[in-house]
UniProtKB/TrEMBL annotation:
Alphabetic keyword roster: Nucleus, Protein transport, Ribosome biogenesis, Transport
Full protein name: Protein SDA1
Biological process terms in GO annotation: protein transport; ribosomal large subunit biogenesis; ribosomal large subunit export from nucleus
Positions with biased composition (Basic and acidic residues): 487-497, 535-547
Basic residues bias (residue ranges): 786-825
Presence of keyword Protein transport: yes
Residue ranges, compositional bias (Acidic residues): 510-534, 551-571, 579-622
InterPro entries noted in UniProt: ARM-type_fold (IPR016024), Sda1 (IPR027312), SDA1_N (IPR012977)
GO cellular component annotations of the record: nucleolus
Subcellular location, record wording: Nucleus, Nucleolus
Family: Belongs to the SDA1 family.
Amino acid sequence: MASAPLLPEPLTAAGRSSEKISLPTLQSKMKCDPEGYEFELILIYRQFHSSIDLFKMQGDSSFGSMSGVGADSSVVKDLADRALFLAHVAPFYPKHLSQFWSELAEFLGSNARSLPSGLRCHVTQALILLINRKMADLRETIALFMNLQTLGDRTLKKLAFSHVIHSIRRMNRKHKNEFLNRGLQNILFPLLQNEEESKAKRSLVTLCELHRRKVWFDERTANAICTACFHPSSRIMIAALSFLLDYEKIVDASDSDESSSEDESTKLTPQAVISKEAIYKAHHKGTIASKKKKKAKLQRAMRSMKRQQRMSSERSSLNHYSPLNHLKDAQGFAEKLFSRLQNCNERFEVKMMILKVVARTIGLHRLILLNFYPFIMKYVQPHQRDVTTLLAAAVQACHDMIPPDAVEPLFKQIVNHFVHDRSRPESIAVGLNVVREICLRMPLLMTEDLLQDLVLYKKSHEKAVSVAARALMSLFREVCPSMLVKKDRGRSSDPKARPKAYGEVSVAEDVPDADLLQEDVGDISENDDIDSDGSLDHGIDNMHDEPLSDGSDENDDIENEANELSSDDDAAGSLNEHEADDSTSDEEDAVASSTDDDDVNGDSENDDEESKSDSEEEDHEEADAHSGSARNGTENKTYKSLKRKASDFDSQLIDGDTSLRALKKLAGSKLGEAPSELEGDGILSNEDFKRIKELKAKKEAKVALTKHGLLGKGSNAKSSGFKVPDSSQLSIKRVDPTKLEAHLKQKLSKEERLECVRAGREERGKYQSRAAVKQKKTGGLSNRQKEHKKAMPLAAKRARVARSRQEKKKKNKGGKQFRGKKAWK
C-alpha cells in the first residue's frame, strides 16, 4: 500500500464541511455511522503505516540512545494515537482491519527494546484491546506478552502480566476449556525450563498465580512448578521452594480478586437467621404483594446461607492442600532434591527451605528416605539457628512406615541434647514437645524407662516444662498405658492398648463407625426394656422382694456362659465377665443398702443375733446359701455403711439395675435373640448412613466438650478428652514450628491492666447517679413530681402542717428517756 504523506492539519470530513475534527470526535462518529466514514478510516490507516516507516527510517539513521530511539516526539505521539484509534474502531471495520493485530504484534516483537516506554505501553494497550474484543487469539500472542515482561519496564511488565492472568481466567470462568488450556500450557512449560533466567522467572510467576487462583488447578501445572526446584538458577529454585512452602498460608489469606461483590457483601454483613416466624409470615400474613416480597427475601437469605456453607466447605477441604499432593514420582522428586541439598553451596536459609520441602514430601507421601535422618542430626543442637524449624521438619518426616531403627539415633540425640537437668527450661519444653510429636507418629521409639524419666518433669516449677510433660503423659495414657507408672495411668479408655507393630495394618472388616449405630440401637432396646418392666423405682423395690438364691444362680450361669464366649472372642469375653462381676457386686451393695436403716437403729448385740439367726437359716435352707454369705459379708462393713451418703446409695441402686439389664441382654444374645436390627442381612440403607453421620458428629462434640471441661460430671465425662489422630491425618497436616515452642501467658503490669480496663470502657458512657439520669429524661414529669408542684388550697396546707407537727411530737416522745430531776433545782 502506498504511503501517503503525514498531514499536519487536523482531518476534515469528506464532502460534508470544511470544519476540523479531532480523533476522539471522529472516533465517536465512526462508531455511529461506520459506512459513512470509510474513507477517513483508510486515510488514517495509511497515516499509521507512514508513521511506522518514518519511525524505522529514524532508527536506521542512528538517532538512538541507550534508553531508546531519539525520534521526534510528534512522530511518537502520532503513532501512538493512531494505533489506539484504529484499535477502538476495529470491530466496526472487520474487513479493513482484520490483519491490524498481526502488524502491531510484529512491530512490538521486532522493535520492543528500541521503542520509547510510552509508545511501547500504548501499542501494547492497543493489542490488548483487540484481543479482548476477540479480533486476535491469545495463543498467538502469549509468547509476545511473556517477552514483554522481561524488558525491565515496570509499567509494561505489570500490564502484560495482568492481561495474561485475566484473559486465562475469563476463558475458564464458565467451564474449563481444556483444549485452549493445553495449548497455552505447551507454550509456558518450555519457558519454565529455559536457561534464560528472566523468561523462566516470569513463566514461574504466571503459573504460580494461576494455580493460586485455582484457574489451572491440575496435576500438570503442579508438577511443572515442582520441577522448577531443579532449575540451574538459584533464584528460580528459591521462588519455587517458597511457593511450595507458603502455599498453605496463601490459601488462608483473603483474595480480593476471587470474591465477587455479592460475596463481599455477605462477608461484611452478619448472617441473618431464618426463623419459623419469618417463614410463617411470608406464607400466611399480609397482602399478596407483601407475601411476595417476604418470600423473595427468604429465598435471598437461603441462597446466601447456601453460598456461605459451600465456601466454608471448600475452605475446609483446601486447608491442608499443597501442590506436592500432585507429584507423579514423589520418591524420585525427594531423592533428587535431597541429593541437591547434599551438594549445594547455598546459604543456610536456602538449605533450610530445601530441607523443609524434602521433609514435607516424605511425610505427605509416606516415603522412605533413610539417609535424611542422619543428615539432619548434625543440625539438631539447642544453640542452632532456627532449631524449631529443623525439629518441625524432623517431625514432619516421621511416619509409621519408616523402620524405628532408622529414626532412633535422631530421637536419642534430641532427648540427650534438649531434655536434661542442666538445660534451659525453654530447651526442655521444646524437647518434650518434639518427643511427644514424634511418639504420636512412631510410638515404638519410646521405651518404658525413658518415658517414666520424662514424665517426672511434670513436677517442675517451670510451667512450660510441666505442661509439656503432662501432654506426653496424656498421650501415652491412650497409646500404651502400661508403660506408665500406675499412679500416672489415670482413667484411660482402653487400659490394654498397645501400639501397632512395625508393618502392622488394621484391615476394615465392616463399615466404618457402624458400631455407633449398633450402640444406638442397643440404647433404644434398653429404654424399651425399662418401659416394659415398669418404672425404675418399681424395679428397685422388686429387687428386695425377690429371693437372692435364684438371682445368684442365674448370675453364675451367665458368668459361665461369658467364659465360654471368651474362648471365641477374648475381648468380648473379658468385657462380659467384667460386667457380670460388677452386676453381682452391685446386687450385694443394693441388698446391703436396703438393710442400712435397720442396722443404724439397732445395736451391735442385735447385729450379732441377726447374724446367728441368718447362720441357722443357712443350715436348714439350702436354697438361700448364697444370699446368707452375701449378708455376712455386708454385715462386716456396717460401720462403713453408716457414713454412706444418700447420693451414693441412689447411684449404687441405678448401677445395679443397669448391670442387671446388661446381663439380661447377654443372656438374650446367648439364647439366640437378635440384639440389634443390623444382624439381618448386614446391608445399610441411606437412612442408616445418615444416622451414623449424626452419631459421629455427636461423639466428636462430646469429646470436644470433655476436652474443654464443659461436659457435666457423670458417665459421659468418663470419655477420653484426647483422641489419637490417624496416621493419614498426621501426614496431611503441616507441622507448625511455633507450636513446638513454649508459649506462656506472662503477667501483665499494672499499666497494661489499666489499659485493658479503659479499653473495655470506651463504649460505656460516663457514670451518673440515678437522680441525674431521671432529671435528664425527656418524657415529662412523673406523677410524684407533679404532686409537689400542684397548688394546694389554704385549708389543706394548714391541715398538712398540723398533721406533721403531731407526728413530730409523737416521734420525740417515744425517743426520749426519763432521766429524773436534777439535784440542784
